[in-house]
């Protein structure tokens, strides 16, 4: 009888150990995904900032390049769809 009881304790300990390892793996995967998303969103913001600088320079000239503004708005739309829920939406620029 004692042997059966010991085996069930070992089984319970093994189950808890496996569950703990799986939990650690899931947590690591989750936080890696968050880090990757943050990096993608940061890169998107840097690209939008580049296009915004180009747009502001274009507006300062005699003939603003609306294509630059449109490109920036496309990038802002993509950012808002993929990053906006987590980090806040960006407003679109008025191109006209």
Write the layout of secondary structure elements.
Elements: H1 2-60, H2 66-82, H3 84-87
Helix pairs in contact: 1-2
Q: Unreliable segments (pLDDT under 50, ≥5 consecutive)? A: none
The major pleated sheet works out as: none
Number of domains: 1
Q: Please estimate the helix content.
A: over 70%
Order of helices and strands: HHH
The end-to-end distance, rounded to whole angstroms, is 85 Å
Q: Taking all residues together, what is the mean pLDDT? A: 84
Report the total helices.
Answer: 3
How much of the sequence is in beta strands? under 5%
By DSSP, the count of extended strands is 0
Would you give an account of this structure?
The chain has 96 residues and is an all-alpha fold. The chain has one domain. It contains three helices and no strands. It has helices at 2-60, 66-82, 84-87. Helix 1 packs antiparallel against helix 2 (66-82). The chain starts with a helix and ends in a 9-residue tail after the last helix.
């Amino acid at each position: 009888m004692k042997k059966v009881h010991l085996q069930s304790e070992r089984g319970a300990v093994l189950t808890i150990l496996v569950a703990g390892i799986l939990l650690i793996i899931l947590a690591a995967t989750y936080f890696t995904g968050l880090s990757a998303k943050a990096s993608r969103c940061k890169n998107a913001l840097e690209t939008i900032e580049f296009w915004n600088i180009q747009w502001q320079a274009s507006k300062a000239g005699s003939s603003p390049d609306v294509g630059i503004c449109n490109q920036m708005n496309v990038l802002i739309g993509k950012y808002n769809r993929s990053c906006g829920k987590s980090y806040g939406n960006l407003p679109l620029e008025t191109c006209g």
